[in-house]
Structures are given as structure tokens and as C-alpha cells.
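Hi C.,

You asked whether I'd gotten around to modeling the 254-residue construct. I have! Everything is below, sequence then structure, no commentary in between.
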Amino acid sequence: MREILSDLVAEQQALDQFLQRINERQWNLPTSAPGWSIKDTVSHLAYAERFAAEVLIDGASVVAAVADQDIDEWTALGVKEGREMRYQQVIEWWRNSRADVVDALSRMEGTARVPWFNGDMSARAFGTLRLMETWAHGLDIKDAMEGLLTFAEDEEDPTADTSRIRHVAWLAHRMLPFAFASAGEDFPESGIRLELMGPRYARWVYGPEDAADVIKGVAGEWCRIAVRRMDSSTSSLKTEGDNAETAIKVVRTY
């Protein structure tokens, strides 16, 4: 748990620091998510983290209370709540909520089970899910601010991918059986192998060594496809086998 929690906190802090560059008017800029501004996006993150903290503290009853609710309607509640706040209040809401999640997870074993919308998962996977959501919505925010900020020459690019996306890559690979099932496809018994190049030429490999179906390419593309921020048809990912081709079309992390 130490590794995923360390990277989760780092990902959240990096986005928090990016938000400090944004002025009050820019918080209302539209993102690629239809109808959502930057402020709406952070409100969603805060709402989701608060809900996650309640689940970790009170258990399955929290999930059961909203199980029959349409997910889009549930999501809209958080955005609506944030629109009644000033942007400074929204970011404090997010900070407090995410801190409660990290605190609760830090008291758990990585293999402990956590209830969630599509069934329970390990605490480690739950922490990875929180990192994935932070990263994905961070992409929306950074895209909305493209060309509006300047950075010092010796400053590390705050919009560049980091090694933390390996967690998103792992989660996307882990969820392939679910993604195949959701799309009405049969997941291959031999599995699917993923060979990725991460930032600074890191090599990340997931799946059986002898798998007939293989996906190769840039980790950032695989992760963006998995969080629905990139269409697979526009990526440079290479596939070997029909199931690998299907995988890059159906992969999802939520």
C-alpha cells in the first residue's frame, strides 16, 4: 500500500499545484467534458473523494444507498454542489476529502476488500482507482489551460506524463476481462500481454509471456484510451492478434 498511496498523494498534489496557477476567471473555462468547467471538474473530484471516504469508513451500506441511482445523475449532484461554492471552497473540499481517503487506506492491508459500484476490490486497486480518476480529470483541466500558462525554462513540464501512469496502465490491463464482458466479447483464456514504453524510456510489461495477443506502444496512449480521452484509431499502438485489436477498442477503467 505504501507505494500506491505515495503516488496517489503525489498525483493529487501535482494537480493541486497546477490549479494554483489558474486565476479565478479561468476556473470557469470549459473542459472537454461536455458542460463541465474546470471548477465543475474539481467539484466532481471532491464529491467522489468524499463518497470514497464514506465508503471506506462505513462500508457497503454507503454504496447500497445509491445503488439504484443513475450514475450520471449521481455525478451531477457533485457538480451542482460545487457550483454553489467559490473556487477556493471547492479546492479545500477536494483537499479535505482526499486526505480522508488516504488516511483510511493507510490503515488497511493492500488485500483488504473495499465495496464499490461494480463490486468489491482490493484496497490497493481502490487506491489505484483514485489515482486514475485524478489523472484523467487532470488531463481535462490541463487541456483546457493549453496555451494559457507559461513555464520557466528550467521548470519540469507540469503537463507531461510521469512514471505514476504505470498504475493506470496496470489498472487498465487488470480490468480487461471486465471491459470485454461489458462489450459482449469473450476474453481469451491465454490472456493479453501488454508491452509499454513509459516516460524516460521505462519498460512496463503486463500479462502472460506466452500470450498470443500482444499490445505494444507508448504507455500514455494506452492510458488515455483506457480513460476515454483518446480514440484507439488515432493511436500508434501496435497489436498482434484479433483479441489485442479488440482490447484497445473496449479497454476501460470505469
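If it helps when you're writing up: Strands lie at 113-114, 121-122, 192-197, 203-206, 213-218, 238-240.

Thanks,
B.
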